[in-house]
Amino acid sequence: MFCSLTTPFEKDTKDMPFGVYPRPQLKRDSFFCLNGKWTLDGEDITVPYPPNSRISGIKGYETFDKENFRYEKRFTLPENFNKGRLILHFGACDQICSVFVNGKCIGGHTGGYLPFSFDITECVRGSENVLNVDVKDTLDKTLPYGKQKKKRGGMWYTPVSGIWQSVWIESVPDSYIKNIKITPDLKGATVETVAMHARAVDHHRKPHTDIQQKSSDAHAHKSHR
Questions:
Q1: How many whole angstroms separate alpha carbon 137 and alpha carbon 158?
Q2: Which of 35, 133, 169, 182 gives the lowest tally of CB atoms within 10 Å of its CB?
Q3: Shortest CA distance to 180 belongs to which of 171, 188, 191?
Q4: What CATH number does the domain located at 28-175 have?
Q5: What is the pLDDT of residues 156-179, one digit of tens each?
């Protein structure tokens, strides 16, 4: 039998859960949160709560065991939001997913624990847009799955499927800093910045976040202090 656990903070997260900028580094003003009301196979769900949780709003969450399901989110970006490129971010999605914007597949991701992102500039319209995420979660033992098990008990927990971290869009210039790597040592620190240029991105390629993109226009700059 399940115990219903509640917190006093639930009432503050009903419409826009975790509506603050989710990344501690590279915080940008051009932040558009996609958390909140989505649909999952036609049923309302509150993202980023997984469908196996009570707070997601999914009926029958206690026995949710779908291995294949589809999310849908409709959104319209604010006027003058786009500064050059539009990047769609996912904090995490368990376990395998494919992402579509206005019917076009923009890429996929394998693994339920790491963040991933896509450049969606060429797919977004000025009017309403449709974002779909097709998820497959079979608790594949060849991938990290923690202590999830369909028959919970003992050390095993109830499975967590689908989107379980924030989803958001940000706008960046055509050339922007993608990542910063700080390496300390006994004499100081090395700061490495990775810059991306829009012309180096092949928008016809279906990107996969397990592969690091390399190009002559993606470069690193190192400085010591």
A1: 13
A2: 182
A3: 191
A4: 2.60.120.260
A5: 887 889 999 999 999 999 998 888
